[in-house]
Amino acid sequence: MAKNNNEVPINGLYDDEGRILDEQVAEARGEGEAESVEEAVEVSLSKEELAALCKESVCPECDVFKEAESIRLRALADSENVKKRLLRETEELKKYAGESILADLLPILDNLDLALAHTGNLSAECKNFVVGVDMTRKIFLDAVKNHGLEAVQAAVGTEFDPEIHEAVGTVEEPSLKSNQVAQVVQNGYRLKGRLLRPAKVMVNKL
């Protein structure tokens, strides 16, 4: 039956076809529609959103809570490891900050050593000059020692050590044992325990 514009129903409600509805039926229909909306909202949530809501309200015994706690602890451990690594790298950087500068100064020591190695059959005047060169070398060496630089042990007769020695050739010296240092070609140096340059030596081979 079509709805009459002049007719005023008791409750003032019509259905879609123009039939009068009572208040209880209308309320029931309204509640049903509200429930449908709520169901639609729940279905629209993604798995990630549901998991996030679950993590906020689950009990400590729940597997989801345990997984979230495990992830949190791993993240804290990773953060602590990164912090320690950065601190260690910073300390190492400070410790060896002058490494490149000291490495550039080594040729000066080499030249002073070379000058002192050729001092045979010199006149008295030249010997005084050699004394000055030797004093200069000692002062220079003391200055770099204050920054942690020290010479590598590479005296003639010591056992060849590939960790601190670099073999540049071999010789046959009967007075020495095989694999001993027969000649020091160039001194080696350490910086605060770290090898800055190996000592270049001739190794005795019998």
TrEMBL record:
Self-association or partners: how does it assemble?
Homodimer.
InterPro entries with a match to the protein in the record: GrpE (IPR000740), GrpE_CC (IPR013805), GrpE_head (IPR009012)
Any one GO CC term of this protein is: cytoplasm
Q: What does this protein do?
A: Participates actively in the response to hyperosmotic and heat shock by preventing the aggregation of stress-denatured proteins, in association with DnaK and GrpE. It is the nucleotide exchange factor for DnaK and may function as a thermosensor. Unfolded proteins bind initially to DnaJ; upon interaction with the DnaJ-bound protein, DnaK hydrolyzes its bound ATP, resulting in the formation of a stable complex. GrpE releases ADP from DnaK; ATP binding to DnaK triggers the release of the substrate protein, thus completing the reaction cycle.
Q: Which Gene3D superfamilies match?
A: 3.90.20.20, Head domain of nucleotide exchange factor GrpE
Organism listed in the record? Pseudodesulfovibrio hydrargyri
Q: What protein name does the entry list?
A: Protein GrpE
Q: Does the keyword Phosphoprotein apply?
A: no
- Name the encoding gene, please: grpE
Q: Identify a single GO molecular function assigned to this protein.
A: protein-folding chaperone binding
**In which compartments does the protein localize?**
Cytoplasm
Q: Which domain of life is it from?
A: Bacteria
